[in-house]
């Protein structure tokens, strides 16, 4: 009888946990359904072509996709490949993120912070990563590509199974499907995302 008395509360807790888990899943499904409805409504009214590839970063599950295989211009999303290579080289001991550098003049314009600063400013490689990711700074991107090497960025992309994705220096990147761009976002180091709130071969 003693044993039964102890077992019943345990079973009750287990059933309760299962019920709560089921309810949480139902709520999540309902929210995703609403999201899909809203996205489809925007897509229907949009005077253009909308692409979307949305993943749950906790589970890796695909939440929603809209034209995921259609090609779109990568634009500054290729900077994800640059920051990925930077932090991998830092982990391998080839780059010291705290080391100082003085960005030379003249500087690439078109966006960011460095174009507005004087010639005697000194920043770290991490500062440049913050500028690149937080303000899409093209000059910071240039300096980081020079530091890690364009070939190294592209070799790393090959290693990720993305041979069609290329960082190309001073040109506009090609059109690419959304899925490779999403993968780049997912593999970008958590340390880079956390430390860079953030903070150009023009991309």
Terminal Cα separation, in Å? 73 Å
Q: Strand count, sense and closure of the main sheet?
A: 2 strands, antiparallel
Low-confidence regions: 1-5, 190-203
Give the radius of gyration.
23 Å
What does this 3D model show about the protein?
This protein is mainly α and 203 residues long. Helices cover 52% and strands 8% of the residues. It is built from 7 helices and 6 strands, in the order αβββαββαααβαα. The protein has helices spanning 2-45, 79-91, 125-135, 138-148, 150-159, 178-187, 190-195, and strands at residues 52-55, 62-66, 72-73, 100-101, 123-124, 175-176. The strands form 3 sheets. A two-stranded antiparallel sheet has the order 1-2. A hairpin with a 6-residue loop joins strand 1 and strand 2. Helix 2 (79-91) crosses helix 4 (138-148), helix 2 (79-91) packs across helix 5 (150-159) and helix 3 packs across helix 4 (138-148). The longest helix has 44 residues, at 2-45.
């Amino acid at each position: 009888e003693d044993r039964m008395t102890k077992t019943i509360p345990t079973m009750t807790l287990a059933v309760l946990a299962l019920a709560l888990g089921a309810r949480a899943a139902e709520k999540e499904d309902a929210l995703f359904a609403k999201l899909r409805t809203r996205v489809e409504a925007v897509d229907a009214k949009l005077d253009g072509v909308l692409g979307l590839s949305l993943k749950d970063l906790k589970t890796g599950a695909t939440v929603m996709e809209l034209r995921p295989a259609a090609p779109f211009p990568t634009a500054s999303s290729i900077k994800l490949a640059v920051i990925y290579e930077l932090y991998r080289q830092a982990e391998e001991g080839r780059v010291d993120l705290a080391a100082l550098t003085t960005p030379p003049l003249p500087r690439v314009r078109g966006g960011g912070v460095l174009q507005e600063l004087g010639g005697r400013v000194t920043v770290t490689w991490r500062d440049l990563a913050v500028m690149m990711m937080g303000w899409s700074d093209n000059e910071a991107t240039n300096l980081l590509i020079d530091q890690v090497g364009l070939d190294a960025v592209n070799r790393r992309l090959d290693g990720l199974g993305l041979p069609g994705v290329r960082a190309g220096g001073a040109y506009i990147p090609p059109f690419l499907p959304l899925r490779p761009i999403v993968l780049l976002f997912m593999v970008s180091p958590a340390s880079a995302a956390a430390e860079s709130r953030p903070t150009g071969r023009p991309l």
